[in-house]
Amino acid sequence: MDRMKIGIIGAGAMGGAVARGLAESGMTASDICVANPSPGKLREFADMGMRTTSDNAEAASCADIVVIAVKPWILPAVAEELRAVIDPAHQQVAVIVAGVSGEELLKMFGRQKGACNLAIVMPNTAMTLRESMTFIVNVSGATPLADSVFCRLGAVKDIEERLLPAATALASCGIAYALRYIRAAVEGGVELGFRASDAQEIVTATVRGAAALLSVDGAHPEVEIDRVTTAGGITIRGLNAMEQAGFTPAVIAGLKAGR
């Protein structure tokens, strides 16, 4: 469906990133409707040619897929608004709300609408640059449009709901963890004599290159590490110093704490 219509409920960090990313992907702006109670947050999207409204039901009523990106405590009220206008036979609902289970979603959207196509979606803020790692959990029905929409914003992986906390730690929280490494490396670069801006440019390019090396089928981090680690060389000394400071255990502990 090339001209799918999308209703986005919520213009905060996540809802806004979805809207901006879709616009950057080449989607027709007028096919996107963004709803938010605060008019100030809608101005940017109206300027981009999107339809905007303060009425959630209006944004949802004519959409093929409704993307809900609101705070968890607001979701029940939003679901109640939308139940009357969602057509379960023709519309799909994708919910970007942390900590809400599929069981809870089914209750909110009414079990009597068993055919309602519901999905939990967990992207990250790199959606704006179309570089998100997005996870999709199929709660009920079929959700092909959710995959189609979020494929425009980066990589997509369909997973079981039981893996969602781990996926969040790896990819959503993981953005912050990766940036913390970059910040630490930049600070190290400054200590080694580079200006902060130059160190950031170097580290960013290096991380981008490392990620590119792993994008090849069959690639493995240890294989690529071995390529640059010579016997008695500076790389192995640096790696061992990091491990002695607890690098790998610290990363794993952070991921576990973020579940």
3D architecture notes:
With 259 residues, this protein is an alpha/beta fold. The chain is built from eleven helices and eight strands. It has helices at residues 13-24, 39-47, 56-61, 75-83, 102-109, 144-151, 164-191, 196-214, 221-227, 234-244, 247-257; strands at residues 6-9, 32-35, 51-53, 65-68, 92-95, 117-122, 132-140, 154-158. An eight-stranded mixed sheet has the order 3-2-1-4-5-6-7-8. Helix 7 (164-191) packs across helix 8. It is elongated. It starts with 5 loop residues before the first strand and ends with a helix. The mean pLDDT is 92.
Structural class: alpha/beta
Give the mean pLDDT: 92
Overall geometric form = elongated
User: Can you write the helix and strand succession as a string?
Assistant: EHEHEHEHEHEEHEHHHHH
> How helix-rich are the residues, as a percent range?
40-55%
Number of strands: 8
Spans of at least 5 consecutive residues with low confidence: none
Distance between the termini: 36 Å
What would the keywords be for this entry?
259 residues, eight-stranded mixed sheet, single chain, alpha/beta, 49% helix
What's the topology here?
Elements lengths: L5 E4 L3 H12 L7 E4 L3 H9 L3 E3 L2 H6 L3 E4 L6 H9 L8 E4 L6 H8 L7 E6 L9 E9 L3 H8 L2 E5 L5 H28 L4 H19 L6 H7 L6 H11 L2 H11 L2
Parallel strand pairs: 1-2, 1-4, 2-3, 4-5, 5-6, 7-8
Antiparallel strand pairs: 6-7
Helix pairs in contact: 7-8, 7-11
